[in-house]
């Protein structure tokens, strides 16, 4: 039904993350997407010079569930325990526009034709906005993989990009959902248990404190930002209604409301634009809330490995005391130590680059937001000026006339 | 007409005499629109508005000007950012000629005669009078207006100043014409305690009118005093068709909160709202030339102590009586079917009712706006705090600083929202509420007129009956009762004449009052719209300032 053109998508103002398409050896984007009822079909387009792929350029259709499959598979891969796994994109949420469409359908009889047309237009715009957002989020998800030296080589990732048949990813049935939920619970309990383990590395100690604090703050900020943008949008909608009502009033004689219409249209534009900017900031915050969670997950895995290491040391000691299974215990201990070291090393790298990435993204987003706010405010000011002087001037001229000049 | 021909539109001018009107005007309009790019956009928009308004002034040119704008400009789509300012301005101008009824509406009373053209234009048209036909006189007049407009465009600054100059001069002249009486209501103070407490307001008057004892004086009044004044004026004058401005509504909830002594922002807001409403009420009363003459008004403004107006209490005997009267009035109104002779009244009452409907709808929307903006302000404050917290836990120093700066910006924006909300409210919402009440009062005038008509008709019917009774008596030949019948007939004839005259008088009064009301309303709305626009402008300026200050901080993040 709905699809976006390449042009509108080429808006490379991706302020959620840095431009992840620097490396030409593997370039991924989502140039097109189709929306059918509930499902969104993304067209994943890949251009590559790597020999591991069969063709240099290809496209496959993918649905949201397949993205989730990819994410889960990677999370479950032991090898990547020391890396920050890019957070899964959220499910496309067309609840808002759908609700509006419903309201529109119900209220159709009670509205004038113009009102109906206007509401329909707004609805389409909102729909498009949600649509664009979800495409962007899925795109960034894939690009995180393609720009990472280790992830890009992952076999599952390549299958995802290349396999032109349906991946037959069935949705998690109830048992698996419950299993997932249970696993989460176990994990949280585990976190509490291993938090008592003494941290050897100061870097990680700091990171843990920082991430814990930051994650709660950013979650809070995201929620508040969402509320604020929603209120702003309400204000804009009110102005819209007012100008609509004034338009119908202005058709009557003997009203002096016509000037007020332009005022209200101005205000509506202002508030719309402002809420758009705030939306970008909210998006940024939301994305990094998820990313911070992924970083925390990495810390958890490392802490788990540390605990395992400690335990294996203890077991080795015990075995030595008892005098049996020493070899096995030694092997176990060696493995644990290896795993822990590997996790620590890659973890440190990942966390440092994550920090840098986050700072850059914030900077870009904040600058963009501010510049756009200023630009639009200046335009609005100009328009308000014109309207104001137009009003004053018309009164002046009329008074002029009535005084007989 | 040498000076006029010096304008850049020389070439088209020579075609004027030969070509049909529409084309020529299209060319004209084209020239006007093509000129601006040379001059600054802001001033040009002002001038374009000027020129189009001048066109709009001309009633005779109505047809001429309805055409060209469509020819030349196409309505730009509602533009999202970035906006082509020029296109937007064009659309402004395009709209104006078509809503040229504006001047008529705003000052409904003004007889829009053909405007006296500007001096230079005037001289030119007189010169062309003898030579060309009347139609071309019109063209030259319009053309000369245009020329003047174009000259005005190149002298943008002077016009800008003359706007403000005229504005000031206008106000001076207006105030000289009007009586000099300024009223302000200030210092709401709580008097007493508990459920018997009330708010006393200071009413200060400043005047040069001789009917008052001094030039400036102050009295203290409470809300029921205002209501009492309204009652007295209503009793005396409303039956003559005068439009008595209604006072603000009673609010049991609001007052109870104040009485109980809750020192929260909502009760402070309530008091402020009431104070402003009372001020507007009094200003409307004294600006009514007939009401001002009423001794009760004078007494209200001057007298130290007023007897307590008991009849205004909601739960009193007088209160119930009033409600009863209102009910009977409503019922009788439904049964009166007036035979309207003057169609003006029919149309007018329809307009009033429509307008009241619209205003009510609008008012609801504006209230929603006010609430949402208050909500927005609250949410922005909360968000600002959250961002500050985030900034404090951020370990990159530059980003941390930027985030706390962002928090500050958002805080200031929240202030702006607050101010804007109260502005929305007082400029917009209260204005609508006032006029909804006033329109109700206007309807009341019409009702009074209907009552007067009914009285007259009833008297006519009674006279008819008396005549019939006389005829019957004549036939039945009862001379003693005949004299009585004749007396009654004379009595009722007199009454009929009296009521008819009263009806005519009240019709004239109502008509005058409504016309005056329309004028006031137009002026009021215009003033408020401008005030609102100015406040919007101000907050936009502030917004730009805040974001401008933040930008370097954002850029400084490393």
Keywords summarizing the entry:
heterodimer; A: 405 residues; alpha+beta; PX Domain; 4 strands; disordered N terminus; B: mainly alpha; phosphatidylinositol binding (chain B); phosphoprotein (chain B); AH/BAR_dom_sf (chain B); coiled coil (chain B); transport (chain B)
Please tell me about this protein's structure:
Chain A has 405 residues and is of the alpha+beta class. Chain A has a domain at 18-93 and 134-170: Phox-like domain (PX Domain, 2-Layer Sandwich). Chain A contains 9 helices and 4 strands. A 4-stranded antiparallel beta sheet of chain A has the order 1-2-3-4. In chain A, a hairpin with a 2-residue loop joins strand 2 and strand 3. In chain A, helix 8 (258-322) packs antiparallel against helix 9. The termini of chain A are far apart. Chain B is mainly α and 558 residues long. Chain B has a domain at 178-305 and 313-332: PX Domain. Helices cover 74% and strands 5% of the residues of chain B. Chain B contains 19 helices and 3 strands. Chain B has helices at 2-5, 10-15, 21-34, 41-57, 62-72, 85-98, 101-106, 119-129, 134-154, 156-177, 223-237, 252-260, 265-286, 289-292, 295-302, 317-335, 343-393, 397-476, 479-555, and strands at 181-191, 198-207, 216-222. Chain B has a 3-stranded antiparallel beta sheet with strand order 1-2-3. In chain B, a hairpin with a 6-residue loop joins strand 1 and strand 2. In chain B, helix 5 (62-72) runs antiparallel to helix 6 (85-98), helix 12 (252-260) packs across helix 13 and helix 18 runs antiparallel to helix 19. Residues 1-135 and 157-177 of chain B have low confidence and may be disordered. Chains A and B meet through helix 7, helix 8 and helix 9 of A and helix 4, helix 6, helix 7, helix 10 and helix 17 of B. Chain A: GO terms for molecular function: dynactin binding; phosphatidylinositol binding. Chain A: Residues 1-167 form the PX domain. Chain A: Keywords: Protein transport, Transport. Chain A: It comes from Sinocyclocheilus rhinocerous. Chain A: Involved in several stages of intracellular trafficking.
